[in-house]
Amino acid sequence: MNESRIHGKHDHGSAPFRPIIGAMHCHDVLFAHWPFVPEKLRPLIPTELQLDTYDGQAWLGVVAMRVTGMRPRFIPSFLGLSYSGVNVRTYVRHSGKPGVWFFSLDIDSRLSLLAARTWYGLPYYKAHFEHRQKDQVLHFDCTRTHRGAPEAKLRFEYAPVGDVFRSEPDSLTHWLTERYRLSTVSPQGKLGFGDIHHEPWPLQEAEATFRINTMGNQIGLKLPLDGSLLHYSREREMLIQSMDFSEQSQLDAHASQQA
Q1: What Gene3D superfamilies does the database record attribute to this sequence (predicted)?
Q2: Using the 8-state DSSP alphabet, how is residue 108 labeled?
Q3: Residue 152 domain flag
Q4: In whole angstroms, how large is the CA radius of gyration of the chain?
């Protein structure tokens, strides 16, 4: 993705443009979402953020992927880091701008984890992954191994179905997947925001069979093994801007920032 194209591509209001600090390619992405009443998720995010809803419904997402070419700006992609990852998220607004709140991000590369925590200040955890493909079905297995962190495990198989499409702007699919602002709270209690930039996701419907899913246990939410809304994307390149930590949050020391 050409860096010059990101200026003005996503409307984040009048916030100053921050430098691009990194890039990465996401592969075999599965978006799995479950609806919740807002009262379940509202207490889990900082009071400075508004829980975003679609037709009055809040959503929790578990997003699994492979990443290649994670690297600082100006480093060639073939020198970048690779890992498997899964994140648990919900959707928020701040000053009218839509974004993502991450409860956890599990990856299997310690070096990538250290780089990501340093660059983004997000709640990354070390985990063991098995990610393989047999015929058209992808098999995904994640077990969190981070010392002192809450236990979490995810095991499922998934496959894309149907034609590739781009989500319609006012659709639930677009609302869930086309999010370009990240938010977090630093260990020092600062509320931070960072923007990502990419072309719209090329999506397909997906089928998945969940065997184990305890990714929501950390925040007191039991996720069912069925009933999720599923989407798949084969590949997308992302550019990442630096985080801006300029607001003090009333959220206590972010539980997911455990060492």
Answers
A1: Acetoacetate decarboxylase-like (2.40.400.10)
A2: S
A3: yes
A4: 17
- Cα-Cα-Cα-Cα torsion 189, 53, 200, 48, nearest 10 degrees, comes to -20
Checking if the pLDDT of 100 tops 70, the result is: yes
Asked if residue 138 lies in contact with residue 155, where contact means CB atoms within 8 angstroms, the answer is no
pLDDT confidence tier of residue 112, bands split at 50, 70 and 90: confident
Angle among Cα 214, 219, 225 to the nearest 5 degrees reads 30
Beta-bridge mates of residue 240: 22, 196
Is residue 9 in a domain? no
pLDDT at site 20: 84
pTM of the model: 0.89
Q: Provide the number of structural domains found in the chain.
A: 1
Tell me: pLDDT of 120 over 80: no
Place of tokens 């990240």: 182
Question: Domain of 73: which CATH number?
Answer: 2.40.400.10
Name the helix (H) or strand (E) containing 114.
helix 110-120
Task: Flag whether 92 is in a domain.
Answer: yes
Answer for the pair 90, 61: CB distance below 8 angstroms, yes or no: yes
- Residue 63's nearest CA partner among 203, 246, 259, 252 is 203
Provide the token pair at 118.
Answer: 């340093």
Judge whether 12 lies within some domain.
Answer: no
pLDDT of residue 12 exceeding 70, the answer is: no
User: What are the tokens at 198?
Assistant: 């990419």
Q: Which of 102, 124, 125 is nearest to 193 (CA)?
A: 102
| Between 239 and 115, residue with greater pLDDT | 239
Q: Which two tokens stand for residue 188?
A: 């020092």
Q: Can you tell me which residue has the tokens 């200026």?
A: 7
Q: Which domain holds residue 210?
A: 21-250
Return the percentage of the chain with pLDDT > 90, whole number.
66
User: Can you give the pLDDT at residue 117?
Assistant: 78
